[in-house]
């Protein structure tokens, strides 16, 4: 099953991605000023997936991508795909798994290790 992953951009705004069962990013949302706005839009998307539209494009480099529309609003943009078939598989994964996908929040700037644990890990790795 895929997952929605909330994170921060370099400009301190929030975004979320939808990742496949294999951990590959399928699409990235637009920017949000507040984290809870991401959560609200994810929940709205999960409930209204049947109203989503996928506008397909072929870029100048020959790669395929789609813009995800929810109603008339641009919601997210996909990663680039080398073939139209892979693009279609990405869309199918969204439609199939997003309604039951969990939300993971990695927007905290804190290290996943405590400072002391991180320093110990670095020292051991250096030895």
UniProtKB/TrEMBL annotation:
InterPro entries: YegP-like_sf. It comes from the Bacteria. This is DUF1508 domain-containing protein. It comes from Flavobacterium phragmitis.
């Amino acid at each position: 099953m895929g997952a929605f992953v909330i994170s921060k951009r370099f400009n301190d705004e929030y975004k979320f991605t939808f990742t496949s069962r294999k951990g590959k990013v399928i699409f990235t949302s637009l920017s949000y000023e507040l984290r809870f706005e991401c959560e609200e839009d994810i929940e709205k998307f999960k409930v209204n997936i049947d109203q989503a539209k996928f506008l397909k494009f072929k870029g100048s480099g020959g790669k395929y991508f789609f813009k995800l529309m929810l109603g008339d609003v641009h919601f997210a943009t996909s990663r680039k795909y080398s073939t139209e078939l892979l693009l279609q598989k990405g869309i199918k994964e969204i439609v199939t798994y997003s309604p039951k996908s969990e939300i993971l929040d990695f927007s905290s700037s804190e290290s996943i290790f405590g400072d002391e644990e991180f320093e110990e890990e670095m020292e051991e790795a250096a030895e």
